[in-house]
Design a protein that fits this description.
69% helix; disordered N terminus; globular; mainly alpha; DNA-binding; 216 residues; homodimer; Arc Repressor Mutant, subunit A; Four Helix Bundle (Hemerythrin (Met), subunit A)
Chain lengths: 216, 216
Amino acid sequence: MLNPAKPSDTNAPSHDQVYRQMRTRIMHGELAPGTALTLRGLGREFGVSMTPAREAIRRLAAEGALTLSSSGRVTTPDLGNDRIEELAALRGLLEPELASRALPRAHIALIDRLQVINQTIAEAISKQDPVAYLRTNLEFHRTLYLRAQAPAMLAMTETVWLQLGPTMCALYGRLRRTEPPQNHRTIIAALRAGDEPGLRLAVRTDVTQGLKMLVG
Amino acid sequence: MLNPAKPSDTNAPSHDQVYRQMRTRIMHGELAPGTALTLRGLGREFGVSMTPAREAIRRLAAEGALTLSSSGRVTTPDLGNDRIEELAALRGLLEPELASRALPRAHIALIDRLQVINQTIAEAISKQDPVAYLRTNLEFHRTLYLRAQAPAMLAMTETVWLQLGPTMCALYGRLRRTEPPQNHRTIIAALRAGDEPGLRLAVRTDVTQGLKMLVG
DNA sequence: GCATAGTTTATGTGATCACAAAATCACCAC
DNA sequence: GTGGTGATTTTGTGATCACATAAACTATGC
């Protein structure tokens, strides 16, 4: 076997499998804010004992994806407006920097891929599928930021996405948007033109505006 | 008992105690890069079983304070130059923002406290005590940033400090600096003058220059 | 009907064990 | 000496158990 880390790595430690599945669930907004999770419940669901479930939970809690009560009970975070604004500011700080670093390495093939993803986003919007919208929207950003060659910065940004996941779930479930992703077109245009300040602004706008309407 | 969370909380979960102690050790540069840690070793050291030690380790690994090998073995991270530069860029992005947010709330009492901490830093330098220097230096920054009322942003910044801890240990153990902290005086002056752009620049300079000389 | 006290259940914490894999060490051939 | 090979020890992983505490429920008294 040439590839030791296949997509579905069945010989990976089970705590890692639990961690990864729960992580994508939370980031994609499949869990509403305040959802309660239990070690034995997760263990039953994934067919493992409490031990791997506990490690996965604590790992997610360390990244801010889960909230621990004082008695150790764990729920998805239910953020207040000030915390949401702060996380939005963090996105507005980190993501333009990532985009700027990706700009010199953004070839045609990358821009084409972004356009394809953008179409998938439009489909998710027209189908009123919040989870698919959130997943493909993050895929758009991650695809761009991967070119920045800045793994620590990208990891930190994904941590912010994680923390916002349940909030996004509640947000997109509430308001039904029908607008196509205009900001993404601006981002692609700036990439094509090699316009660095324009790219920074477009990314910052895209990242900020979606969350501004929630706290209003 | 009016205060349920005393400084030395002996009734806190033991995994939390192990976590906190190891966290400050790493952040203060008491562990050299590449130091190997074992579950049973930590358990013996703290008088607990493997279980709490494991949770503490995994929590620290999730924050980037520890590196896990493919076989699950855990060491303090030994960062390459590109990763150091990236983390320095992260500090240069986050900390000026925190300082800027703290500026309108920086009263005289805070500035006085910063001056006192600055004297302690000078003492640590004259005594050639790298750990005390690192600890008081971080205390200077944290004292300022606490006023920003941005807990998520501060937590993210501390995560960066954590990741840089062992590297700082190696750095300050190598080169023997004798210069007093001039950048901190510039920061304090900008705080006094209410000079927001000057403060951002001073913080960015202080944060960046210390790490630039390492990668050179 | 409702609040409250007592009981029962559910849940997190920590210890211990068995197991497999990896690292270390020792020994031996060359 | 040096390189490789087998045995031994170390180490992480996961399961299971006992225990304490917090939540949920129930019954009882007013």
